[in-house]
Design a protein that fits this description.
GO terms for molecular function: hydrolase activity. The protein is built from one helix and eleven strands, in the order βββαββββββββ. It has one helix at residues 33-38; strands at residues 16-18, 21-23, 30-32, 60-62, 66-67, 74-75, 80-81, 85-86, 93-97, 101-105, 110-112. The protein has a three-stranded antiparallel sheet. It is 5% helix and 29% strand. With 113 residues, the protein is mainly beta.
Length: 113
């Protein structure tokens, strides 16, 4: 049996080490080994569609046309979004898009600019 910790997000026992991180193959949650060993709360690692790590204040580019729910407007491919804020939840990017306003995006539909 493995002596690695269970995933703090989904409690999966199939975690593995990847460099300085523990990774859960079931829910794709990643957390730092040092935080797990220290017993502290692990911070979530946010990644874009290409695997680049995102941070608060980054600029990103939309990689797919995104329909806005409840509206006929669309966020077009190539739309650049500046000064993002990362939040927990399904839609993990909080931002303001010129001409549309405040909205939330999923990190899987953007790439770091």
């Amino acid at each position: 049996m493995s002596d690695l910790p269970k995933c703090p997000q989904c409690a999966s026992e199939y975690t593995y080490e990847d460099g300085p991180l523990y990774v859960c193959p079931e829910c794709a949650h990643e957390w730092a080994i040092e935080a797990a060993e220290a017993g502290g709360a692990a911070q979530r690692v946010f990644r874009d569609a290409h695997g680049n790590i995102l941070e608060d204040g980054d600029s990103v580019t939309v990689i797919k046309d995104l329909k806005i729910k409840g509206s006929s407007a669309v966020v077009k491919v190539g739309t650049k979004v500046r000064n993002i804020r990362l939040v927990d939840g399904d839609h993990d990017i909080d931002c303001k898009i010129d001409g549309i306003g405040a909205m939330k995006l999923k990190s899987e539909f953007v790439k770091k600019a």
